[in-house]
Amino acid sequence: MRLQDKVCIITGAGSGIGRGTAFLFAEHGAKLVLVDRDLDGLTATQAQLPAGVSALAVRADVSKAADIERVVENALREHGRIDVVFNNAGIMPHGDLLDFAEQTWDEVMAVNVKGMFLMCKAVIPAMLVQGGGSIINTSSVMATLTEPGYEAYTASKAAVIGLTKAIAVSYAEKNIRCNAICPGWVDTPMNLHLLEEMGEEQLKALIKRQQPTGRMATTREVAYCVLFLASDESSGVTGSALYVDGAASAAI
Ligand code: NAP
For labelling alongside 155, which of 29, 141, 148, 195 has CA 20 to 30 A away? Predict the structure, then answer.
């Protein structure tokens, strides 16, 4: 029960890493505020939680300030405090730079970076009043290692690390911690399009080449890292980026 009665907002909770983290946080006694733009996904996450778990579901687009303010208002009305925020919602459009639409670039930055800024701006006032909190932002191993066609995604995930460090420094004295996780390959719907584009054999070979463990991480393996950063066990850790990448960033 490492998060007993802690109020935790999780964005992107309708799928993948966000959903896996919601399940693990629930096992550790958290009161959940689940956020996603995909209502069906949110409802499915809620439905799979054990009976008795406190889980408020709020449909919201993290790139819209009014939506984020509504999430925070709902959380505070229901629970009166917010202890943890897992800023995890993200998108990964890719394609040749020369054909990459300006609008798609703006969308990647709005969801992957501005969404985190908006959430931090909305929750930090409550964290200041209550005397602390923990914010975890999902970056990626692709913040520093990349491949052709991922300019927008890579730039956005590098920005997440910069944002994380800046917030950590600004609010360290106020007991508000801010850390990033950098997953490598994780088994989630985000990678399904690659399965369709490349086929199973080629995708497996690519993962083996890039991630020395030779397999994708599970959402639960990522969730345990988020749990550590969310819990008081990591009270000395802020401004850091934790790699959950099966040694991808260590390999040549
Ligand atoms: P996922 O299964 O696609 O889940 C992401 C969820 O976020 C989806 O439900 C998605 O809804 C939602 N979302 C997207 N844009 C949103 C918005 N503007 N407002 C609210 N919700 C929004 O992907 P995942 O793999 O769990 O990814 C979670 C995070 O991990 C992302 O930040 C991703 O970049 C990062 N990451 C993933 C991997 C990996 O290998 N899977 C590796 C490194 C980092 P829609 O379905 O409607 O888009």
Answer: 195
Cα torsion 111, 66, 82, 130: sign: positive
Written as six digits, the tokens of 7 are: 């109020």
Catalytic residue among 153, 171, 224, 243: 153
**pLDDT tens figures, 57-96:** 999 999 999 999 999 999 999 999 999 999 999 999 999 9
Residue with CA nearest ligand 1 atom 23: 190
153 labelled catalytic: yes
pLDDT value of residue 76: 98
Separation CA 92–CA 151 (nearest Å): 10
Assigned fold of 7-189+218-243: Rossmann fold (3.40.50)
- Residues of the chain with pLDDT below 50 are none
- Establish whether residue 21 lines the binding site of ligand 1, counting it when its CB lies within 6 angstroms of any ligand atom: no
Nearest CA-CA partner of 9 in 124, 168, 158? 124
